[in-house]
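Good morning C.,

I know you're traveling, so I'll keep this short. The sequence:
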Amino acid sequence: MPYHNPINGIITHKNSENNIYICYIEDFSEELKKKIRKMLSSIWNGAVDEVEDEDIYNYKMTLKDFLNRYSTKSPNLKKGIIGELLSHLLIPHYLNNFEVISIMKNKEENSIRKGFDSIYYNNPEKNIWYCEVKSGGNEDERDIDEKNKERLNEAKSNRTWIEHHSLGENKILWQSVLTDVKSTIFDNNKQINIKKLLKADYPGIPNRNMDRNVILSSVIYKDLITRICPNKLKDYKTSIDRENIFVGLIIFSIQKPTYTKIEEFLVKESNNTENE
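The tokens, ready to paste straight into the viewer:
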């Protein structure tokens, strides 16, 4: 699959050799808005459910469900939710051959999913990648690279998420992602193959696989006058690679001035669709 075309309003830095990606969202463009309209339901509910149950998983209903959960959260949690939405939107767009196999909403509670943020299947390599997203705002005047490193360190240090907590000893979370495969993958044979890989990581089974391919994603809400430095991010990733914590590692950082424009857009969209 070829590298996807850029999205208007987003400048990207791609270092595929070192598995480092940066998206600078300069403008909340019409193309980005259209992509949110197109992808929100599949991100939130799963592409299969969106198609098979369009009457309840259409854009209008998804907006309502998303905002019902989002509106009650604190500003910090809202930043995190928008950050996860952006990661869900952009990671599969810019990473070749990565296909999402999890959904964003929490099926058990009126919230977003717990324990992990998203899971991807790499088609040619036929392996699983677990993604952790950490977001932060512009609360202080610290250097943008230090701010970004802090968010990535928070994701990296959450090894319990990778090894024990999320998709770790919590079998309910494992069962949830196995269900997500049915909601995200159309091909039955591919579903079976992906579930085999996930079950190899399942808690309690003999000779459980504990190797992990991981995507650490950061979303920084900070003015783009000063930008995340690709070379510093490369140095940061190299330092993690030396630790041999993960089998495979991708760093995916997003920088955007604020989260509120997306919030305002979604609220406006909800009001418009309710009046149709």
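Safe travels,
E.
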